[in-house]
From TrEMBL, chains A, B:
Catalyzes the conversion of 3-dehydroshikimate to protocatechuate (3,4-dihydroxybenzoate), a common intermediate of quinate and shikimate degradation pathways. It catalyses: 3-dehydroshikimate = 3,4-dihydroxybenzoate + H2O. This is 3-dehydroshikimate dehydratase. Keywords: Lyase, Metal-binding. Pathway: Aromatic compound metabolism; 3,4-dihydroxybenzoate biosynthesis.
Length: 596, 596
């Protein structure tokens, strides 16, 4: 289906918005009136710019409070409409949106509304324009889609149809099934937005908190299904008012937006995406660092052994049980200090996984490979993390990344761990986008978002996982742009016995994050422990959580650059990540830093 | 009255919070449990730190879901309480807050609640601790203050009283008058918070959007009046959960917080603040600039004449009618480029105005004066703008700032303007604080806040004015911290005839901000104009607005540094600032800048 986006959904000048929409693959745009008014380009120039960019101008919405008003007022509205229809002819837009009136002048008279809309449609028709009438959720007398449709039906004008908007319909809790009673040919336009499920004033909700389909809590796909069953064949068009998107760069937002429509089309059975290939494990995590020494010391103390070195690049492989860490000291590492740069995901079909990612607009990474390297498929996540699709030693038909490495002499690792989860810091404005990316591209399941109180602001965190928990990625974000660099990424290692692992780490010279005594005093008030158990935790800085499914014990290493490690011992039934201990961890990390 | 603040209201580590509260003048603190748990200081050390800072520890709230639970659960709760009471003895806190239960285990049985609270109070009494029971607005069975009080009354234990919280009472729309039925001695604590009037889920509203009294929409003073009439003599304590305050620097937030309590006490008649002295006009606006030339050229083109020079400092006075601009090229100007640094306000009693400002915690500015300078009273606003209280040529008894200036030869100014309004950019996290400051310190009235769509994010703006509109200050803020430097301050000059003024400005070589033709095309659709009128506006970049009170015509100069001028012609009945034209102006200003 054709895809479109309202320019109000993107940040920047009109030309920046158009460029971003085109590059992201949209077929058309709705031009928001304020964007046109503020543009130095004339309507004709905007039309030409759109044509150059391969965009149609699918909708314009220059008028408010048109219908069901006293006659003299309607006369002024028609006068205004004529101006706008002339403009639309220049702009090359053939559909005008008319939202139900919110004016105190509006009269509760469907007959009058129908008659005036009919007159408006007659004028529009002279300009080759169609009028799409839409119920605003907070319309004064018309606030539901079926009411708007009854008025359109009563008017009976060929140039008058209805526009459906998923936000206005779903925010009111209207049953979208009735959409199927509208003839598809009379649905002139379909605007789509999702929103988080907030119990708040609908106008504020609509103006500030809309998001792209799949990022919120509405069943947008269900609604679109009803619309498609009417025979509607117009565009799927995004109209999203969102305070964060207004500030974010238009380019990435447009990509996220278009991805949401691709996923939506898949959900309603009209897209042609390669099927998801859910990863089955973590093959490796890759750290980049300008200085291998502190990282090597940390890995060594954690029980990793350096087992191999890349044949042509300055990359070491460290292993411990099933956990593998690559340490890359190549040129890419020089810029940002030590960080978590890439994740290898075990994939049942690496090629197919990459094809789906590419179809969902993930940048495919060029591999600057040596001739003998294994041809690994990799894409970039929205936060820049590189995702490699791997088949580690599973199938002689598939390339194994380890073939690029030459074993080096080493002692066997001293412990057996695997990667429990990885925690990535997302750009401030891409929290919901990141979850949608990981869900749609990787086929992971997104858990609930949780707020975590950092001493210097609230953080949010949401985990995406596969069904058996062998892939768990926690996506975290600060409360404001400045926090992007405030918080560290981390790698959590699942161990059999966290007490033993912590002791071994410390004995090997590793530094554990000190946890305040007050925290363990509180544990004593909350739980009963075996003799000495709490003292053990206290001595090692082990934190403790418990839910209906079991117990979670964990501790943290000191931070190197922007990365630290966590040691976790997880009862199989425990589903969380110790979020309730995170404020104590964050405060301890801040306390260990130079003064702010 | 004694003032207190919950540590959760401030950003940072516990010791940062305590220091900020003490410096801002609070008498005590409520220690939030998470702050204690995350602190490396033991409870005894925290007590000592508080004592050093002159702070009492007025409240601790370590327990949830205590009452009306099955007996075995209550046994665990008592066990936990004993731990916490021991801690409180170390901490030197003698009042514990118990919020009504939100647990699914809680039983709807007031008798059971009273009996268990009584048992808890008996245990507390052994430790010299009082229990203050408070109804959470979202409590499972107890959600109103009168219900909580009935349970306390039924329990009848001397160590059990109630805690009132303005948010929980006013967010539910409860009538606070019934507070007067509670004996003051049984009100063990009073927590205060305001909040913007949002129609949203009360839990989310409470956790993220509380603000200090006077910053929101609740009648907190009215509630406090009821409480004081009971004879309550405990502290006024702020407990504010706010996402923005969590990120803002603790020092300024604590000052804003304490100011809000001073204003609140004045409102309920228990404070001793000097009375407000409302300014009666704008004496001058002061620009600082490292390079006087572009500013001088701009002022000259606007019709200002350089009339005088400061006797001892590199400051020029420019005049035009009643409008006076100081241009300061002194050392302070070197850092930030050209900006609006100070405002002179005509004050009926400058000394008294300064005394009130100082009593309300505005920093009094030291004047590095030459011996002969007039002793001007001045304070700093939260955004750093210097506010001078002036008596320009009004009273021979009062110092006149112009005496510091020596006239220089000049032609008379070519036009007659006055300052219509000044627009200041506020730090991101101080929007509500700025309004409260200007209201309370200067006695100005705050108008409604409006959202303005900038191409790169939403801005908010709110004007503070005196009754006759001779002082109008628009306080603007961006949507995120990064926007602080994105938007310019401006000085709006009221002129008799904006068309003539714009033409004269241009004829004198001044550069007007170009406004897109699309904007004027839209005016043609919305209004009918006399022949040629619209073409005149189009040619000069004049914008047009109209409300029930009249018409507003305005245009803008190009920006110099971070400052531009606006020329405005305002019908006397028009109360606004052309906010609906602001998006076009902002887009035009962005378009005139180097690419982002």
């Amino acid at each position: 289906m054709r895809t479109s986006i309202a320019t109000v959904s993107l940040s920047g000048s009109l030309t920046e918005k158009l460029t971003a929409a085109s590059r992201a693959g949209f077929d058309g745009v709705e031009i928001f009136e304020n964007d046109l008014l503020a543009s130095p380009l004339s309507p004709r120039e905007i039309r030409a710019r759109c044509a150059d960019l391969g965009l149609s101008v699918d909708l314009y919405q220059p008028m408010r409070d048109i219908e069901a008003v006293p006659d003299d007022e309607f006369g002024r509205n028609l006068r205004r409409a004529r101006h706008k229809f002339e403009l639309m002819r220049e702009l090359g837009a053939d559909t005008v949106l008319v939202c139900s009136s919110v004016s105190p002048l509006a009269i509760d008279d469907d007959g009058l509304a129908a008659e005036q809309l009919s007159r408006l449609a007659a004028l529009a028709q002279d300009f080759g324009i169609r009028v799409a009438y839409e119920a605003l959720a907070w319309g004064r007398h018309v606030s539901t889609y079926d009411h708007a449709w009854r008025i359109v039906e009563a008017a009976g004008h060929p140039a008058l149809g209805t526009c459906l908007d998923s936000f206005h319909i779903l925010s009111r809790g209207s049953d979208p099934k009735g959409i199927e009673d509208i003839p598809g040919a009379k649905i002139f336009f379909l605007q789509l937005a999702d929103a988080p499920l907030l119990a708040m004033d609908v106008l504020q909700w609509s103006r500030h908190y809309r998001c792209f389909p799949g990022q919120g809590g509405f069943d947008v796909a269900g609604l679109v299904g009803h619309v498609l069953r009417t025979g509607y064949d117009g565009p799927l068009s995004l109209e999203v008012f969102n305070d964060v998107f207004r500030q974010a760069e238009a380019g990435p937002t447009a990509v996220d937006a278009h991805r949401s429509l691709l996923v939506l089309q898949e959900a309603v059975g009209v897209g042609e995406l390669p099927a998801p290939v859910v990863p089955t494990g973590v093959a490796f995590a890759e750290l980049v660092t300008p200085d291998a020494e502190p990282v090597s010391a940390l890995l060594g103390a954690l029980g990793f052994a350096r087992t191999a070195r890349h044949r042509s690049k300055p990359v070491d492989l460290w292993e411990q049980g099933e956990a593998r860490i690559l340490v890359n000291t190549g040129p890419a590492a020089r810029r940002d200090g030590t960080g978590l740069a890439a994740i290898g995901l075990e994939s049942p079909d690496p090629r197919a996984a990459a094809r789906r990612a590419e179809a969902l607009l993930a940048p495919v990474l060029p591999r600057r490979r040596a001739p003998e390297d294994a041809p690994l498929d990799a894409v970039a996540a929205p936060d820049g993390t590189e995702l490699f699709f791997c088949a580690t030693g599973r199938d002689p038909e598939l390339p194994d990344w380890r073939a690029d490495f030459a074993e080096v002499p080493h002692e066997p690792g001293s412990a057996a761990a695997r990667i429990d989860h990885l925690a990535l810091v997302q750009p401030w404005h891409q929290y919901d986008e990141a979850a949608l990316f990981h869900r749609s591209v990787l086929g992971l399941h997104a858990q609930e978002s949780v707020d975590v109180a950092d001493p210097y602001g609230l953080l949010r965190s949401r985990a995406v996982t596969n069904a058996d928990g062998s892939v768990r990625i926690a996506l975290g974000v600060g409360a404001a742009p400045a926090d992007d660099t405030l918080h560290a990424q981390h790698i959590a290692l699942a161990v059999e016995d966290v007490v033993a692992a912590a002791r071994a780490f410390r004995a090997a010279g590793g530094g554990l994050l000190p946890i305040p005594a007050n925290y363990h005093d509180d544990l004593a008030a909350r739980y009963e422990f075996a003799d000495g158990e709490l003292e053990t935790y206290r001595g090692l800085g082990i934190l403790y959580d418990r839910d209906a499914g079991g117990v979670f014990r964990h501790c943290y290493t000191r931070t190197v650059g922007r990365v630290f490690f966590e040691l976790v011992e997880r009862d199989p039934g425990y589903r969380g990540y110790g979020a309730q201990n995170a404020p104590v961890r964050l405060a301890a990390q801040h306390a260990g830093r130079p003064a702010r």
